[in-house]
Amino acid sequence: MPYLSECEVTSHHELSPGHYRLVLHCPEIAQDAQAGQFCMLEVQQGYYPFLRRPMCFERIFKDSVSILYKIEGEGTRLLSALSPGQSINVQGPLGKPFPLEANHARHIMVAGGIGIAPFPALAEAIIAKLGVTPEIIIAARTDSMLLCEREFQQMGCKIHLATDDGSAGQKAFASEVLRALAPGPDTIAYCCGPMPMMKATHRVCEDLGVRCLASLEAEMACGDGVCLGCVVEAKVEIEAERMVRVCYDGPVFDSALINWDNY
Amino acid sequence: MPYLSECEVTSHHELSPGHYRLVLHCPEIAQDAQAGQFCMLEVQQGYYPFLRRPMCFERIFKDSVSILYKIEGEGTRLLSALSPGQSINVQGPLGKPFPLEANHARHIMVAGGIGIAPFPALAEAIIAKLGVTPEIIIAARTDSMLLCEREFQQMGCKIHLATDDGSAGQKAFASEVLRALAPGPDTIAYCCGPMPMMKATHRVCEDLGVRCLASLEAEMACGDGVCLGCVVEAKVEIEAERMVRVCYDGPVFDSALINWDNY
Amino acid sequence: MPANLQVNVGGLLMKNPVTVGSGTFAYGQEYDRYFDVSRLGAVTTKSLSLKPRAGNKPPRLVETPSGMLNAIGLQNVGIDVYLREKAPWLRNKGCTIIGNIYGYSPEEYAELARRLEAEGAADAIEANLSCPNVHDARTARGCTLVAQDPQQVTAYTQAIRAATKLPLFIKLTPNVLDIAEPALAAEAAGADGIAIINTLLGMGIDPETRRPILSNIVGGLSGPAIRPVAVKMVWDVAKVVKIPIIGMGGICTAADALQFILAGATAVAVGSYSFRQPDASMKVIEGLAEYCERHSVANITELIGAMKV
Amino acid sequence: MPANLQVNVGGLLMKNPVTVGSGTFAYGQEYDRYFDVSRLGAVTTKSLSLKPRAGNKPPRLVETPSGMLNAIGLQNVGIDVYLREKAPWLRNKGCTIIGNIYGYSPEEYAELARRLEAEGAADAIEANLSCPNVHDARTARGCTLVAQDPQQVTAYTQAIRAATKLPLFIKLTPNVLDIAEPALAAEAAGADGIAIINTLLGMGIDPETRRPILSNIVGGLSGPAIRPVAVKMVWDVAKVVKIPIIGMGGICTAADALQFILAGATAVAVGSYSFRQPDASMKVIEGLAEYCERHSVANITELIGAMKV
Ligand SMILES: Cc1cc2nc3c(=O)[nH]c(=O)nc-3n(C[C@H](O)[C@H](O)[C@H](O)COP(=O)(O)OP(=O)(O)OC[C@H]3O[C@@H](n4cnc5c(N)ncnc54)[C@H](O)[C@@H]3O)c2cc1C
Ligand SMILES: Cc1cc2nc3c(=O)[nH]c(=O)nc-3n(C[C@H](O)[C@H](O)[C@H](O)COP(=O)(O)OP(=O)(O)OC[C@H]3O[C@@H](n4cnc5c(N)ncnc54)[C@H](O)[C@@H]3O)c2cc1C
Ligand SMILES: Cc1cc2nc3c(=O)[nH]c(=O)nc-3n(C[C@H](O)[C@H](O)[C@H](O)COP(=O)(O)O)c2cc1C
Ligand SMILES: Cc1cc2nc3c(=O)[nH]c(=O)nc-3n(C[C@H](O)[C@H](O)[C@H](O)COP(=O)(O)O)c2cc1C
Ligand code: FES
Ligand code: FES
After folding, report:
1. CATH code 2.40.30.10 region(s) in chain A
2. For A109, A261, C223, D38, which has the most beta carbons within 10 A of its beta carbon?
3. Contacts B–D by Cβ distance under 8 A
């Protein structure tokens, strides 16, 4: 059951240029939220921007959630002006969470850029519910955009860094790093990032027989399954539909179900 | 010459419910500004609200100006959220100031509600340039909306209070208070407030042969004489136009030139 | 005493004048998680077609200043799934249902109306003769929507009219020179009401990629950006037809809804704004009740077309 | 090397593709206080009529979501004052001038064009066949603007064409079913360019007073709210005419201007947004130059109609 709540900002920090962590006091939402789900933030009270902005939960606490975001345009710029003590309208939790499946020995999370956002919550859930510590590949354009390293260290996750420009970790794409880790049928991969990065990750997983869960992105109007604006094409019908809604049927999908030819 | 300046908010206070004083650091504008002129504030960076908001100068200092305003709608609500240290784009000074005419023994300012806004600056200018201390009629719906009493006291102005509900001063309209002060041909009146209040003030002045300058209000798009949206009908042609621009030909007009039948 | 908000829209009794825009409320279930959707004057369904439709390729929507462009292309579950899964839910909730339909010919519309009536799956029919998103914009030119051609409006309306006794509303497009013409055609052909407006045609281009933002290139513009256009079209139609109007286009608040009612609408629909505020339609109902009390309006019908010119 | 921004709009050479919307820049003087207006590709004047016009009664404008409605009603100084006071100033500044004209008959337009040419007071003529604010909305219905009727567009264009050798642009209204039709009529009748779009018809009502917000009831909607509609109309016209297009409607930034150019406009005009940001047009020019450099575009004309479909 999603809620519409006015939530107080309890903290808000710039982590690296253009990247922020926002903590929101939202007891009802926090109580129901699961890793992989998201919320829709009303960044402005007027009609510009007109729509809410989708943001997944970075971490889920007892009474609050944290959001990790990157400035992309007007909406995130407005978001970044919020000060602790101010409030913002939050709709959520929305979408399907990452499934937590016990039958895998190895869990590898693959993050591209701000696609790191849902993984702290997922790592915590995997550790807490499955008793396994996942590995993580953190890939970004450049060093300053590698986020959450310390958080994953503290959780004891094995971390693989990669940058496009070689300024930190390997100079490689996330999908190549994954291949080099030689995952097998005992492995489950989780990926989140730009569509081309997830496509490449899916291909590697397909090659190696790895189950892969992708958290997709799409332009969203409602976030609630109503407008049919956020669809992606599935390879098979999901609940009698080819065009599946990222917001409602996802955002987390088995990557094998998605038609990646479009990306 | 008007400027377009990013100006820092140096202070911002709520004076009474819904009424604020905003002080802006704007050396260029402050240097040129004169009592009765106004500026256009960009209350938002996005496209809603789309237009700037006109606000006159309450007081003009060396490097800064103060604005006295009342929350009316979305634009002023957004304005009220500005904190000291933040900045706002200001266009000004715009419009024609109150003329300072030495040939009057008695100067009476007539303010209705937030129409008080231009008078502190005007009083200062009259005292400084003409060596006369003006009187002021401060009228409002109710006690808590009577503003700037202390400021006028400090300047030594004789103050006449009036409220619609009798909660402070006389229970009377500003125009009636003016009539009771028995102004004559030696008097110049200045009025600012809602159109019906200015119309009534004009009628009193007409009756008594008092020269009356009115600072008019109108919906404005450009504030610069360009859009022709803010016009009022004049009784005679002003620069070959019947429809005169409040923003450019005014906002201060000799009340005898305006066709008040429309209000 | 609270005002009487009930309205009669061409035979459809609505307990208040507020419904939702077709395609902005799906089939009601999702938003029922935020408020009891049976409190609406009526729920208007997504356009239903005979076969399920997959719609256009993504991207299908983009935000615009104070609005949005969409080119969904009428993705819908099809009439069979609607009758089997959606209508029973709506009925069970006690909703008044406006069944919005879309077809490729007068016969298809007639068939859809017939089935909805036969299965008791709608209390009124709204025929969407104005969807802008089912044509290839590369080749389309001029008059491509049924609602752009009064003669076709006549033919389609007659066919549907012959197929159903339910109140029949014809949904028109604003992309015309004079909205009064198709409205008059619909009225003459037996429609019980006019639903206006569907979206304005629009498009966007990404200068960085030089590609259209929507896969379909052209989409429909909705939201507060278009509200002034919609109010004007309601007024234009109200001046010439006698049947009631369901007004929509950018309604967000009760004050917006009142503009439509004062211009001549008997009922109103909240569209895109539900995406931003899922319970916006409910807030409009509350705001209308509050307005009526504040202005001593005993019966909201007093306000229909009550603009003072 | 900086890009070449020069464009040829049907014989009018503009040093960059940016002009301003008629009626949003007066006759240039006011905004020259913010930036050197001679740096614009051209200054387009407020619509000029034979006699001065007082325009409509106030209120004449109201803000709307991401836009505004206006019903100025063509208040202007008249051609005589323009020739005596305004044109000399523009000439003295070194501005390229697009003289926008409005008349009540083909003869009036012809006369206006003739006088502008004879006195060297314009470098091109833009004939406003589409002002929405000179009719009484209470009685008007249907086709009330010249630009809504292709036959009238033909007659008016021919008359003006016969009167002047200056490049002639015809300004059309978006309030039509298919903007291509009047555009084709104008082209066939000898126009050198099409200026689109003028404002969309719209209105607003104050629920508290139940009165229309504009004294004229109906006004023209402009600003970013209508941009998607304008881009689409430019694309529609670009597909069918060979003469250049001056695109406008909600342009605020260079990115917005590029949408129009990629859709097929040769030049663009910044309209209402100048009210918010008096130097917006100058910023658009700078932004276009920056874009061309960043994308290695040597000549901005490469971008005209270069949308990849
Ligand atoms: C389920 C979901 C969860 C998300 N979680 C996060 C998160 O945790 N942290 C984070 O930083 N971002 C997240 N995003 C992306 C985020 O929603 C967009 O970056 C944001 O909406 C951009 O808004 P804007 O107004 O700043 O930019 P805009 O001005 O709207 O757009 C700027 C650019 O971003 C693109 N964009 C806009 N909206 C989206 C969108 N919904 N999805 C993808 N691209 C978009 C536009 O096409 C444009 O290129 C998520 C997106 C989805 C769908
Ligand atoms: C030259 C000039 C100087 C002004 N100086 C001051 C001042 O010093 N302090 C102050 O508080 N106000 C002043 N005003 C009025 C102020 O500009 C409006 O109150 C403000 O623009 C309202 O904006 P909003 O977005 O809050 O309200 P909106 O939502 O825009 O409107 C709310 C209500 O206010 C009315 N309104 C909107 N704009 C104006 C306007 N420009 N003039 C009159 N009524 C309007 C609307 O019709 C509506 O009824 C001045 C107006 C002018 C023309
Ligand atoms: C995403 C979306 C989908 C829509 N789908 C339909 C539809 O299936 N059938 C229909 O008649 N109208 C459809 N519409 C039009 C709306 O019902 C409504 O007429 C229009 O959006 C104007 O109202 P608004 O501005 O309040 O959204 C759709 C609109 C949107 C935004
Ligand atoms: C206040 C105002 C006055 C206008 N006056 C005229 C005019 O006199 N002649 C004309 O051809 N267009 C006139 N227009 C239309 C604009 O030139 C332009 O076509 C329209 O506003 C769309 O552009 P925009 O959205 O950038 O403003 C006027 C527009 C506004 C807002
Ligand atoms: S965002 Fe509306 S259906 Fe997904
Ligand atoms: S506000 Fe534009 S002319 Fe006065």
Report:
1. 3-94
2. C223
3. 106
Which of the following CATH numbers is that of domain B3-94: 2.60.40.10, 2.40.30.10, 3.30.830.10, 3.30.2010.10? 2.40.30.10
Residue-wise burial string across A81-117, b where 16 or more C-beta atoms lie within 10 A, e elsewhere: ebeeeeebbbbbbbbbbbebeeebebbbbbbbbbbbb
Domain definitions of chain C by residue range: 7-54+74-201+223-303
Q: What does CATH list as the number for A106-262? A: 3.40.50.80
Residues 6+ apart with CB under 8 A from D294: none
Residue with tokens 């050396």: B27
Sequence-distant (≥ 6) Cβ neighbours of residue C10 within 8 angstroms: C124, C167, C168, C169, C191, C192, C193, C243, C244
What gap in Å lies between CA C72 and CA A227, rounded to an integer?
Answer: 8
3-class secondary-structure state, position A220: coil
* Residue among D131, D143, D252, D292 flagged as catalytic: D131
Helix (H/G/I), strand (E/B), else coil: B236: strand
Q: What are phi and psi of B163, to 5 degrees?
A: -130, 150
Which candidate, A99, D207, A223, places its Cα nearest to that of C259? D207
- Greatest extent of chain A over all pairs of C-alpha atoms, in Å: 51
Q: Is the bond into C106 cis (omega within 30 degrees of 0)?
A: no
Which residues of chain C neighbour A91 with C-beta distances below 8 Å? 278
pLDDT tens by residue, A211-237: 999 999 999 999 999 999 999 999 987
Query: Which residues of chain B form CATH 3.40.50.80?
Result: 106-262
Residue B235: both structure tokens together: 């009784």
Is some CB atom of chain C closer than 8 A to the CB atom of A260?
Answer: no
The CA D20 to ligand 2 mean position distance, Å, reads 27
Tell me the C-alpha distance between A159 and A150, whole Å: 10
Helix (H, G, I), strand (E, B) or coil at A93: strand
User: B84-126: per-residue pLDDT in tens?
Assistant: 999 999 999 999 999 999 999 999 999 999 999 999 999 999 9
Nearest CA in chain C to A243: C54
**C7-54+74-201+223-303 homologous superfamily:** Aldolase class I (3.20.20.70)
Report ipTM (2 d.p.). Answer: 0.96
Per DSSP, what are the bridge partners of residue B262? none
At residue D56, the 3 state secondary structure works out as: coil
- CA-to-CA separations, B247 to B95, B220, D110, in angstroms, rounded: 5, 8, 34
What is the model's pTM?
Answer: 0.96
Going from the Cα of D288 to the center of ligand 6, the distance in angstroms, rounded, reads: 29
Using alpha carbons only, what angle is made at residue C153 by residues C216 and D140, rounded to the nearest 5 degrees? 95
- Please, are residues A194 and A216 in contact by the beta-carbon 8 Å criterion? no
